[in-house]
Every structure is written in structure tokens, then in C-alpha cells.
């Protein structure tokens, strides 16, 4: 899953992962994060997800990171927001698009997640991962989870400094189908995040993968806290 893979997906409009409606598991479980209004929510590998508009409607600022710049531009165009664009000369591939909607700020970095620093993103109060961890093959996931933790670690949030996270995963027989989205077991969630967080499963339920409707799939909601 190199950058060219994702560039081609967006260029060819093979973006079946993009949801037309706000994710119901986000609306159901956001309160588990206990966030005061005005908090900044980090959405790694954000695409042009409409969930970010919903987060703004709930009184939160959003910081997203998306590799493909055309996806970032589509997000602002489709939601009728005029962003201010800042080029970061110290890392020429990083551009920051920042716009206002519903009284909140949405800041999307057109950048490789692995090229960013905590200083780039600033204060992060919580993380929302939908179709990000599960978009990556097994060999990239530990590097990804460590980077998300590193970027969202704030000493001011709580004693541990960890911003809490809502993580959505899918589980199915990986031998039946290759990803993305990839299957992730509860043991793997532990492997990726267990050394930094207390992990609680909030829900697990049967689901359907549109690209393979015959597959037996379950969807899981995890709260990463402390
Ligand atoms: C499966 S999509 C999910 C998008 C979004 N979370 C959603 O729910 O619609 C994964 C996204 O991650 C982006 N991506 C992949 N690798 C990335 C990286 N290293 N840094 C930033 N974005 C990346 C892809 O371009 C793609 O838009």
C-alpha cells in the first residue's frame, strides 16, 4: 500500500470506502470520549469523510491528515468551505488546508502521516479512526499505531498524556479475501495499542462489506483510554 496505490484509487474514483452518511457508530459512541466542547479531534487518514463535518456540528475542531491532496480539496469544495492553504517549506510535500464551518476550524494536512510531527498538528484531545488502521497491511500497522499515538500525545490531557481514541475495526477470515479493508482481531488491537492504552470493546456486531457481501464480517468499536 504505497502512496501510488492511494493516488490511483482517488484518481480513478475507486473510493467505495467514502461514506455518503455520517457513520452511525461515531454518533453513537462519541460521548464515550467525554470531550469538552472546543476540543480538537484528530482524524488520521481522513479522506474526505463527512464525519468531520459532523464532528464540527458537535462543537469540535478537527485536524485531519490525508495523503492525496485532491481528496483534501474535494472535501472543502463539496462542503462549500474556502480554505486558507499554507505550504510548509521545511517539508515541501506538506500543505495545510484550514477552513471554518459551523463556528469550528477544520484543518486538513495534505501529507504523509509518517512525515508529520506533533508540532505540526498541535494540541490533540482525541482521535477518531474509521477505515484508517484497517486500510493498512499488517506490516505497516504497528508503525501506524505508534505514529498516531506519538502525534496525539499531550501531557495536558490527563496524567498519562494519551488522547483517548474511538477505533473502528472489521473482523473476517483474511484467507477468504485480501484487504483493504483488512481484518483485525482483538489480539491485534492489543498488539498495536495495548502498551499505551486501556482497551475496551464498546460494541461488536455483524456487518456487511459492500465489496464482498457474501463474507461473514463483524464490526467492532474500541475505546482506547488512559
Ligand atoms: C480507506 S480510506 C479511509 C478514509 C476515511 N477515513 C474515511 O472514513 O472515508 C484510507 C485513506 O488513507 C489515505 N492514506 C493512506 N496512506 C496514508 C498516509 N501514509 N498518510 C496519510 N494518508 C494516507 C488514503 O489516501 C485514503 O484516503
Order of helices and strands: HHEHEHEEEHEHEHEE
On the 0 to 100 scale, the average pLDDT is: 94
What's the number of extended β-strand segments?
A: 9
Q: Strand-residue fraction?
A: 25-35%
What is the first-to-last residue Cα distance?
31 Å
**Residues in helix, %:** 25-40%
Q: From the alpha-carbon coordinates, what is the Rg to the nearest angstrom?
A: 17 Å
Which shape, going by the Cα principal axes?
A: globular
Number of helices: 7
Strand order of the largest sheet: 3-4-5-2-1-6-7-9-8
Helix/strand layout:
Layout: H1 3-11, H2 24-29, E1 40-44, H3 51-57, E2 61-66, H4 69-78, E3 84-87, E4 95-101, E5 104-110, H5 118-121, E6 126-129, H6 138-151, E7 165-171, H7 186-193, E8 198-207, E9 217-225
Parallel strand pairs: 1-2, 1-6, 2-5, 6-7
Antiparallel strand pairs: 3-4, 4-5, 7-9, 8-9
Bound molecules: S-adenosylmethionine.
The site of S-adenosylmethionine (SAM) has 20 residues, from strand 2.
Amino acid at each position: 500500500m504505497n502512496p501510488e496505490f492511494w493516488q490511483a484509487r482517488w484518481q480513478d474514483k475507486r473510493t467505495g470506502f467514502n461514506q455518503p452518511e455520517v457513520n452511525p457508530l461515531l454518533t453513537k459512541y462519541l460521548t464515550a470520549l467525554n470531550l469538552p466542547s472546543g476540543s480538537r479531534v484528530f482524524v488520521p487518514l481522513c479522506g474526505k469523510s463527512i464525519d468531520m463535518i459532523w464532528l464540527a456540528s458537535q462543537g469540535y475542531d478537527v485536524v485531519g491528515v490525508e495523503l492525496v491532496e485532491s481528496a483534501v480539496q474535494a472535501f472543502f469544495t463539496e462542503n462549500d468551505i474556502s480554505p486558507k492553504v499554507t505550504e510548509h517549506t521545511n517539508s515541501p510535500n506538506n500543505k495545510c488546508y484550514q477552513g471554518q464551518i459551523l463556528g469550528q476550524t477544520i484543518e486538513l494536512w495534505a501529507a504523509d502521516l509518517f512525515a508529520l510531527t506533533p508540532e505540526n498538528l498541535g494540541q490533540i484531545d482525541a482521535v477518531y479512526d474509521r477505515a484508517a488502521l484497517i486500510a493498512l497491511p499488517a506490516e505497516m500497522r504497528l508503525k501506524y499505531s505508534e505514529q498516531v499515538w506519538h502525534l496525539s500525545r499531550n501531557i495536558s490531557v490527563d496524567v498519562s498524556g494519551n488522547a483517548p481514541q474511538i477505533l473502528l475495526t472489521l473482523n473476517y477470515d483474511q484467507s477468504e479475501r485480501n484487504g483493504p479493508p483488512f481484518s483485525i482481531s482483538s489480539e491485534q488491537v492489543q498488539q498495536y495499542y495495548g502498551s499505551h492504552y486501556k482497551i475496551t470493546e464498546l460494541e461488536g456486531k455483524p456487518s456487511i462489506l459492500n465489496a464482498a457481501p457474501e463474507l461473514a464480517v463483524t464490526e467492532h468499536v474500541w475505546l482506547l483510554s488512559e
